[in-house]
Write a structure and sequence with these properties.
Layout lengths: L14 H24 L9 H8 L12 H13 L18 H13 L10 H17 L7 E5 L2 H16 L9 E6 L4 H10 L2 E5 L9 H13 L3 E8 L11 H11 L2 E5 L24 E5 H4 L7 E5 L4 H6 L33 H36 L3 E8 L2 E6 L7 H15 L5 E5 L2 E7 L7 H14 L1
Parallel strand pairs: 2-3, 2-4, 4-5, 5-6
Antiparallel strand pairs: 1-7, 6-7, 8-9, 9-11, 10-11
Length: 472
């Protein structure tokens, strides 16, 4: 006879299986942390056929499931075939997670808070507000910054452009006549955001230092106004992805104020460096921006995903996104703090508890220790540049700017250096011991190293150059 207090098709596991699952997951997590300390980037050269066979990509849909032990074995194979952010991984802008962030992600998943509004996730909502405020204070943007956490810089840039659109233009305006501006060195996510919104993005030529040129920007704005178009936003960079260049934020803030334009700063990569006291002057004007994108998973040692959009005016996001919710989510609380809903401040409705890992990381390490780690990353990039300058078979092409250094291998007798370095990069990425990415600088193919790893040492820099020479 069916037990009325139980379900026949429950997805609960037996307590012994739950314990075995969590113990196995902990063991795998520890193995991954160890791999980011000293393991190769790839255990074996990545190849699609091998990876597909390893994970059973052509297997049919499981019908009856499998035991916990088999599941953990399958997970171990998947993780083992992945990429590790080891001390020689200089490819993309991604820091390894500090252990506290990895633990926080597990806790956030177990709690499974859907951080839509205070009433559905009161503690998680307050933690996110605190984490956002702390971020603003950390980088000198605003002591009482507001905003929200998002998947990453692309989502933050899109939300910022929409925010500017709603607060700086007439709702009835023809979007095809609306113009936003960025540097020719700006991140491609800004162009994608403009395309999504149906507005024009003007890429203003950068100056010799690869920064947005205020004079050229002003001329471009005047030209567009004369042609009947409507400028509404400037997107500046606090650390470009290719070279780490910082746009002249103070001058751009003056120009944006004169022209009544929204100033958004894409600091997804570089803004955390403003936490370093000796670098703060290079970010002068950041505090005058209307909004700031910042990725904690890029240079604050937090696991993906943890992007942020900060706004200087705490009421801005509410004016842009509020009063659009459906009846079934209408908030009836009279207390303002308890009536807060993130859907009134951004695009998303369902939102994971991203803030826990950021909040725990900031609490565990504190601003001083995090800034010191960032400063050492920058010192490692400077050391790489020094070693490249001193080498007869290397050429420094850019940097170091923040923690990015671009160079190329220049062996004697090689005429087509671009082709040589492009082949070299492919060999490096498949070899798996170290990892670089690429950039095109003044028409030249560059090997690009971006160091955002609190475990990287001078020894890792030397090892990277040794591998470059060996594979070349």
């Amino acid at each position: 006879m069916h037990d009325p207090a139980a379900r026949a098709a429950t997805l609960d596991l037996a307590q012994t299986d739950v314990r075995a699952l969590l113990a196995g997951a902990q063991a795998l997590a520890l193995k991954e942390i160890e791999a980011t300390r000293d393991g190769p980037v790839f255990g074996e050269p990545p190849a699609a056929a091998r990876v597909r066979a390893l994970i059973g990509a052509d297997d049919p849909l499981p019908v009856d499931g499998e035991p916990v032990e088999a599941l953990l074995d399958a997970c171990a194979r998947v993780l083992g075939a992945g990429r590790r952010t080891n001390p020689g991984f200089f490819g993309y802008v991604q820091s390894p997670p500090a252990p506290v962030g990895a633990a926080a992600d597990l806790l956030a998943s177990a709690a499974d808070q859907n951080v839509t509004a205070w009433r559905s996730a009161p503690a998680a909502t307050e933690v996110e507000k605190v984490a956002v405020r702390w971020l603003g204070e950390l980088v000198g943007f605003a002591p009482a910054a507001a905003g929200l956490l998002l998947a990453g810089g692309s989502a933050a840039n899109l939300t910022a452009l929409l925010l500017a659109l709603r607060l700086r233009t007439d709702p009835a305006a023809d979007r095809r006549a609306l113009v936003a501006y960025t540097s020719s060195e700006g991140h491609f996510s800004v162009a994608k955001a403009a395309g999504v919104l149906g507005v024009e993005l003007r890429a203003v030529p950068a100056d010799a230092a690869r920064r947005l040129d205020p004079e050229r920007l002003e001329a471009s704005i005047a030209e567009d106004r004369a042609a009947g178009r409507t400028p509404f936003c400037v997107v500046a960079a606090a650390g470009t992805t290719a070279t780490g260049a910082i746009d002249p934020l103070d001058r751009l803030a003056d120009l944006a104020a004169e022209q009544r334009l929204w100033l958004h700063v894409d600091g997804a990569y570089g803004a955390p460096a403003a936490a370093v006291a000796v670098l703060r002057e290079r970010f002068a004007g950041l505090e005058r921006a209307d909004s700031l994108a910042l990725d904690a998973h890029k240079w604050l040692y937090v696991p993906v995903d943890c992007g942020a959009l900060l706004v200087r005016d705490p009421e801005a996001t509410g004016r842009a996104f509020g009063a659009a919710a459906g009846e079934y989510v209408r908030v009836m609380d009279a207390e303002p703090a308890e009536a807060f809903a993130f859907w009134d401040h951004g695009i998303e409705l369902s939102r994971r508890f991203r803030a826990l890992k950021l909040w725990m990381t900031l609490r565990c390490y504190g601003a001083r220790r995090l800034a010191a780690a960032i400063e050492e990353d920058i010192a490692m990039a400077a050391y790489l540049a020094e070693r490249v300058r001193a080498a007869d078979d290397m050429e420094l092409l850019s940097g170091p700017e923040l923690s990015i250094c671009c160079f190329r291998h220049v062996p004697p007798g090689v005429r087509d250096l671009d082709a040589h370095n492009e082949r070299l990069l492919g060999a490096l990425q498949r070899d798996g011991r170290v990892y670089l990415s690429n950039a095109h600088l003044d028409g030249r193919f560059a090997l690009r190293a971006c160091i955002t790893n609190f475990r990287t040492t001078c020894q890792d820099i030397e090892r990277t150059l040794d591998v470059v020479r060996e594979l070349a």
